[in-house]
Amino acid sequence: MTIAILIGLGLGGLLAFSYYLNQKTPVPAGCESIEAACEGCHASTCSRHPSHREDDKRG
Amino acid sequence: MGNLITMCISAVLINNIVLTQFLGICPFLGVSRNKESAIGMGLAVIFVIFGASILSYLLYYYVLDPMNIRYMNLISFILVIASFVQFTEMFIKKYSPTLYKSLGIYLPLITTNCVVLFVALANITSGYNFVEMMVYSLSVPIGFMLVLVIFSYIREKLAIAPVPKYFKGNPVALLVAALMAIAFSGLAGLV
């Protein structure tokens, strides 16, 4: 059981670390507005849905 | 060798993941409005499924199985897939801006594509060896890309076709998907 928890925590940590590194990596020039062009599934719960970005801008 | 070819044809054409298992329907409907998006999404899915399946397979047989914690496979695979997608996005962002521009938005969305998790789990439950796992993990996303690209061509034509008002959009798209499933079922006698 302890090993299972440790592996779970380790993989969770790996995900957090990879997310942190990904966010820290600068977006290449000319690719800043890629997300704005997304015409994916239109799921309103998706964090990349345009309405969420507008909420972020409003604060 | 014949077994691997049969497995490949079966996964791509006969037991196509979208048309027989109804998995990956969200990107199938959402990213099929134009063929450029469909090709970008298809390529990204092939890369992520292949990479994530290899990592999941190694994790299962070299960590979870020897330690007798096989019940951790679902949560472990989800975390491995999500991490792999993050690392892939970071790598592409850093070393290939052109590729990032074409795939950029589709890469993070793949984390929520259930086909990725299905393939990782199917490799374990089917008891595939390493070579079979690689062939299966390559064939399934190729099948996904094939129907996605065909569907995008049809939807581009549908966009300018005189479709009745209440069938426009997703209703007619689902009808087309159903007809595609029927057409693909005709290939069942191929192997």
Would you give an account of this structure?
The complex is a heterodimer of chains A (59) and B (191). The relative contact order of chain A is 0.08. Chain A has helices spanning 2-24, 50-58. With 59 residues, chain A is an all-alpha fold. Chain B is globular and about 60 Å long. The interface between A and B is medium-sized, with 30 and 33 residues.
Count of all domains of chain B: 1
**Low-confidence runs of at least 5 consecutive residues of chain B:** none
Helix content of chain B: over 70%
Oligomer: heterodimer
Specify the overall morphology of chain A: flat
Distance between the termini of chain A: 43 Å
Strand residue content of chain B: under 5%
| Number of beta strands of chain B | 0
Q: Tell me about the biggest sheet of chain A?
A: none
The chain pair with the largest interface is: A-B, 30 and 33 residues
How much helical structure, as a percent, in the residues of chain A? 40-55%
Straight-line N-to-C gap of chain B: 14 Å
Q: What is the average per-residue confidence, as pLDDT of chain B, rounded to a whole number? A: 87
Beta-strand percentage range of chain A: under 5%
Strand/helix succession of chain A: HH
How are the secondary structure elements laid out?
The complex is a heterodimer of chains A (59) and B (191).
Chain A: H1 2-24, H2 50-58
Chain B: H1 2-14, H2 17-21, H3 25-30, H4 35-64, H5 73-95, H6 97-103, H7 106-110, H8 114-125, H9 130-159, H10 170-185
In short:
The complex is a heterodimer of chains A (59) and B (191). Helix content of chain A is 54%, strand content 0%. Chain A is mainly α.
Question: Main attributes?
Answer:
heterodimer, A: 59 residues, mainly alpha, 2 helices, B: 191 residues, 10 helices, 77% helix, globular
